[in-house]
């Protein structure tokens, strides 16, 4: 066979593999780590799953900020448990990502060097206790809208991780709403605190669902692989439609003068999102980008000697085992 | 009001509250996700125990006392935790050493407290034993890893143990109310736990290739409300919301 012929059958073979692969996804079959997959599929999934994992662990920081100051023991325990859940989500997702042939250390490296992104919402500061309510209610709420469709995504380990994650996220959302409810049933000062938190978190939460469809680069491919089932704008609309009645129950006002029920479309119309702010935060210039990265990198660097020690100790134990086995 | 019992409950609970608060500071900032999750677990257990004790104390106190008024609205001089548990998280070695030196004591205490004539204290102790045995296993394992890990970790762990050793003896100081209640079979006479405690700790430190400190100069004061300078800052954080927004429900 000539070289050209060899090359030809090579591409033909991978084309047919790719066809089979796409067919499997179309048939709603799950792709598992050992299955053949196109390089682009692998890369896209590493990018998305790791971005998701990073968001979980960076997301621990804004809420972690209030653990020592929670206003009651019950709230303190609930907040601690919530932040711990997010750490757990990070773990499942890093593990899912590792099945694609990348190590957790490499993934951390990408986060710490700024190469990998995480959800930009976590670059906003938590300045009052009410932010714990608003984050649970809105941010976990938006996360659920983003993530529920992923429970049926094509990559098996990701889909399974999302099923566990989503269960806990809906619990977080109820907990956040309940914090808001307590504030709204409280004193004037507490109501103001709740309204102020909604004012500050509303727009960032809408932005969290991603750039508007015309600006979104990955959508089409992601749809095919079921990494996405609805567009960002559809998800955003769903989030707004779901959240406005909840704000009504709380007696809070959504900070958007253009927000209005549209009888014809059966959806809420809403005002212009400040995309300039979104891109500013995404590019690293939000209110807390530096603090969040410093906290993550700092924890990692301060932990180096600890991780080294654990490794050294494990090796020593292993050697001891081997030696005692030899002695026998 | 049963003043002795009330004070004794605070003596038990404040250790859990303050140790839990210190661990809570680290959530999200630990050396790995796994240690973060484990330390948060310990913190959650300790806060759970605190709540059981304080709910009981609030019942005894009556009026509008609640677990939160007891946790958040006392003055520094009224907190009865030992000095050990309020020591700051200087580094991971200090955190682990502090928690371990408390955990060994805590488990010994609970193993006795489960036989208290006071049914509620006995029930809390029974429920907490399982948790405390997990805690001591976790922190003990880390003492071994860090003590017998690298040269650097060994030095850091030794420094932490040396630094915190001075606070261990206070654990066995018997307060007036504990003495009275111990005679009634309600409280544990902690002085009886001392030998076994130092035996267990010394054995583990030795296994971890660490030197058992010979320091015999000890600090105390926590049980009578005289704390180290760290305590005020811890309380300022912990009490912030209750102080800034008094009489509100959250
Ligand atoms: Fe999460
Ligand atoms: Fe969550």
TrEMBL record, chain A:
GO cellular component: cytosol
Example of a GO biological process term: phenylacetate catabolic process
GO molecular function terms noted in the UniProt entry: phenylacetyl-CoA 1,2-epoxidase activity
Top-rank taxon, per record: Bacteria
Protein name (database record): Phenylacetic acid degradation protein
Organism: Kordia algicida OT-1
Automatic annotation (TrEMBL), chain B:
Listed GO biological process terms: phenylacetate catabolic process
Domain of life of the native organism: Bacteria
Pfam family, one: PaaA_PaaC
SUPFAM superfamilies documented for this protein: Ferritin-like (SSF47240)
GO cellular component, one term: cytosol
Signal peptide limits: none
Record's protein name: Phenylacetic acid degradation protein
């Amino acid at each position: 066979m000539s070289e050209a012929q060899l090359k030809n059958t090579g591409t033909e073979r991978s084309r047919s593999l790719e066809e089979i692969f796409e067919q499997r996804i179309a048939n709603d079959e799950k792709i598992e780590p050992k299955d053949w997959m196109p390089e682009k599929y692998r890369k896209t999934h590493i990018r998305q799953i790791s971005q998701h994992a990073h968001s979980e662990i960076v997301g621990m920081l804004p809420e972690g900020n209030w653990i020592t100051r929670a206003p009651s023991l019950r709230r303190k325990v609930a907040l601690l448990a919530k932040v711990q859940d997010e750490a757990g989500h990070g773990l499942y997702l890093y593990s899912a990502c590792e099945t694609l042939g990348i190590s957790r250390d490499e993934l951390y490296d990408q986060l710490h060097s700024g190469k990998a992104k995480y959800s930009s919402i976590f670059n906003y500061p938590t300045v009052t206790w009410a932010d714990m309510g608003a984050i649970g209610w809105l941010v976990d709420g938006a996360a659920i809208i983003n993530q529920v469709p992923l429970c049926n995504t094509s990559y098996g380990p990701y889909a399974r991780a999302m099923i566990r994650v989503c269960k806990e996220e809906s619990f977080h959302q109820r907990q956040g709403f309940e914090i808001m409810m307590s504030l709204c049933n409280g004193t004037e000062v507490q109501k103001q605190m709740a309204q102020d938190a909604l004012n500050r978190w509303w727009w960032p939460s809408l932005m969290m669902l991603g750039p508007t469809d015309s600006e979104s680069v990955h959508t089409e491919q992601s749809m095919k692989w079921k990494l996405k089932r609805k567009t960002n704008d559809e998800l955003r609309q769903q989030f707004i439609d779901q959240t406005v009645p909840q704000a009504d129950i709380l007696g809070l006002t959504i900070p958007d003068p253009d927000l209005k029920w549209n009888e014809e479309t059966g959806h809420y119309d809403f005002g212009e999102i400040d995309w300039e702010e979104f891109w500013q935060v995404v590019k690293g210039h939000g209110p807390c980008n530096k603090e969040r990265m410093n906290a993550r990198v700092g924890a990692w660097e301060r932990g180096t000697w600890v991780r080294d020690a654990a490794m050294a100790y494990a090796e020593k134990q292993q050697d001891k085992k081997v030696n005692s086995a030899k002695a026998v | 009001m049963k003043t002795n019992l009330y004070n004794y409950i605070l003596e038990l609970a404040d250790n859990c509250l303050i140790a839990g608060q210190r661990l809570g500071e680290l959530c999200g900032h630990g050396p790995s996700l796994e240690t973060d999750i484990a330390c948060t677990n310990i913190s959650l257990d300790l806060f759970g125990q605190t709540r059981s004790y304080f709910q009981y104390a609030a019942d005894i106190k009556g009026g509008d006392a609640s677990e939160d008024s007891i946790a958040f609205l006392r003055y520094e001089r009224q907190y009865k935790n030992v000095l050990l548990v309020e020591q700051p998280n200087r580094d991971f070695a200090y955190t682990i050493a502090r928690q371990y030196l408390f955990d060994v004591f805590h488990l010994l205490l609970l193993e006795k407290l489960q036989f208290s004539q006071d049914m509620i204290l006995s029930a809390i102790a029974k429920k907490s034993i399982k948790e405390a045995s997990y805690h001591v296993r976790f922190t003990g394992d880390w003492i071994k890893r860090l003590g017998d890990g690298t040269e650097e970790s060994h030095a850091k762990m030794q420094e932490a143990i040396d630094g915190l050793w001075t606070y261990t003896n206070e654990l066995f100081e018997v307060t007036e109310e504990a003495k009275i209640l111990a005679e009634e079979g309600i409280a544990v006479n902690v002085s009886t736990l001392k030998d076994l405690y130092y035996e267990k700790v010394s054995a583990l430190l030795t296994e971890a290739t660490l030197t058992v400190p010979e320091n015999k100069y000890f600090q105390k004061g926590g049980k009578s409300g005289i704390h180290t300078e760290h305590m005020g800052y811890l309380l300022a954080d912990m009490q912030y919301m209750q102080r800034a927004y008094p009489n509100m429900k959250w």
